[in-house]
Amino acid sequence: MLPNTGRLAGCTVFITGASRGIGKAIALKAARDGANIVIAAKTTHVNPKLPGTIFTAAEEIEAAGGKALPCAVDVRDEQQISNAVEKAVERFGAYTIAKYGMSMCVLGMAEEFKGEIAVNALWPKTAIHTAAMDMLGGSGIESQCRKVDIIADAAYSIFKKPKSFTGNFIIDENILREEGIKNFDIYAIKPGHPLIPDFFLDEHPDTITKKMESHDVLPELKEEKSQPPPKPRSGAVAETFRIVKDSLSDDVVKATQAIYQFELSGEDGGTWFLDLKSKGGNVGYGEPSDQADVVMSMSTDDFVKMFSGKLKPTMAFMSGKLKIKGNMTLAIRLEKLMNQMNAKL
């Protein structure tokens, strides 16, 4: 873990989403230096499904050695943001550090405020365990995640740097390696267990990919399962699978090496499969003849949108429209295949 140095004592940190998860972890890390924390988040009343409010977070921050200002803020409301900033200035003076969720703004703001305020973006290399991840990923997902502490340490590392360090897009593990951290198992929920690569990074580390491919997440099924007799199907889902089948080749199968099972709800739904392990590949209605590497559950409407490029799989997953069980690396691999098929769909 990255040790606290006291460098942030007296600094004011304005953190959106600080009532729980990553935001609160960053707040507590800064609070241990004696920083002032503005907790800008929506939750003011206890939610049985999502622990933490701006007030409970404030108690933890002050217990850790910082000063807290809880502010009810919905970041979609510009007036609420302005009000929170005014309260922060009134209570602590001008704030010197901010956490944004808008990485696309980094380059523009870094140039605009050059020499005055440093603007950087921070992103995780792997999935981070939060309440949101539990809701979207389901039971057992935490074993494939790292703790929020890794983001807090990475943010703290950025906060320690001078204002000239600006306009950077930073991966948590990379900056901590520069700090001398070598043992990243300390950040894992389950040390030694394969980790899910972050959904929004274009490249994933080969070592993680190899571990994920060799790890069985789904429970064992029967070794042999007879292929169900083909049933005549019609509708948008059947047409989508017909086009997918026409797009298959030995090269696609070789590059993917996975069997996908789709549990679709709604009209033309049911169980479907996409076999990208057998020669030439295969699709069909019913369960695959061999164990599925990935099981995806969603509505038929969202399925058609996803394969036609109107709904990105990562966004479908993060919004709860898509539930995934199994090998997450292979699930991500399917997205690349879908991108190749979008023009035909």
Automatic annotation (TrEMBL):
Key word Oxidoreductase present: yes
Record keywords: Mitochondrion, NADP, Oxidoreductase, Peroxisome
Domain of life of the source: Eukaryota
Residue ranges of domain SCP2 in the record: 246-338
Gene Ontology cellular component annotations, sorted alphabetically: mitochondrion; peroxisome
Subcellular location per the Swiss-Prot or TrEMBL entry: Mitochondrion; Peroxisome
InterPro entries, per the entry: HSDL2, NAD(P)-bd_dom_sf, SCP2_sterol-bd_dom, SCP2_sterol-bd_dom_sf, SDR_fam
SUPFAM superfamilies named in the record: NAD(P)-binding Rossmann-fold domains (SSF51735), SCP-like (SSF55718)
Gene Ontology molecular function terms on file: oxidoreductase activity
Keyword Oxidoreductase: yes
Family classification: Belongs to the short-chain dehydrogenases/reductases (SDR) family.
Function: Has apparently no steroid dehydrogenase activity. Controls bile acid (BA) and lipid metabolism in response to nutritional cues.
Name the record gives this protein: Hydroxysteroid dehydrogenase-like protein 2
